[in-house]
Design a protein that fits this description.
Layout: E1 2-5, H1 14-25, H2 41-45, H3 49-64, H4 73-82, E2 86-90, H5 101-111, E3 118-120, H6 126-132, E4 137-140, H7 143-150, E5 156-159, E6 171-173, H8 176-184
Parallel strand pairs: 1-2, 1-4, 2-3, 4-5, 5-6
Helix pairs in contact: 6-7
Length: 186
């Protein structure tokens, strides 16, 4: 099976690890966040795209290099690879937010010893990438991405987070062990 997987907030603890810095930078308190809107960080923070990208270009490189990994993710991905599944990371990480998205992402994957077969960066249109790569299952934390990919008939797992509590017809999963159990039952 070819499994397409997002990185930030799907395998990496990006938002939760970067949130304290973003709150301080934008002079916000956590009770001022707009989780009900969901979507991208700028929606939740209540800032413009240009404000967010200005912040990202200045601080993302060092911060994103230090984010953690979701519990059990590394172990589950290793077992999936051992069973012959292909892991294809499909991430929107790009030069909009990072100086060298490839180098930073490869270093992070190496640091955590994450197994994978392919890395696709600057993935703004994940539906088309999933179709082109013949993805059999897609895993992401972003409702919009999940809904778009699901219109191709590709099964989708939406990783639950505070940022995606809106209604969604995609299969919601709560952790990597649940994903592994669901895959074993396919």
């Amino acid at each position: 099976m070819r499994i397409g997987i997002d990185i930030d907030d799907t395998i990496a603890t990006t938002f939760e690890d970067m949130l304290p810095h973003m709150l301080e930078y934008f002079h916000l308190h956590e009770n001022e966040l707009h989780y009900e809107i969901g979507g991208y960080y700028q929606n939740i923070l209540g800032i413009s795209d240009s404000e967010f990208f200005q912040y990202a270009r200045k601080y993302y490189d060092p911060l994103i290099s230090e984010v953690g990994i979701k519990p059990n993710c590394k172990e589950v991905l290793k077992r999936l690879k051992e069973k012959g599944h292909e892991i294809i990371f499909i991430t929107a990480r790009s030069q909009k937010t990072l100086q060298d998205p490839e180098a930073i992402t490869l270093a992070w994957l190496k640091q955590y010893e994450i197994p994978y077969d392919k890395l696709i960066l600057s993935a703004d249109h994940k539906k088309q990438i999933c179709e082109r790569e013949k993805i059999d299952l897609f895993i992401d934390d972003n409702i919009r991405n999940c809904m778009e990919v699901s219109t191709s008939g590709i099964p989708v797992y939406l990783i639950d987070s505070v940022m995606n509590q809106q209604d969604c017809s995609c299969k919601r999963v709560y952790d990597w062990l649940s994903i592994e159990t669901l895959l074993e039952s396919r």
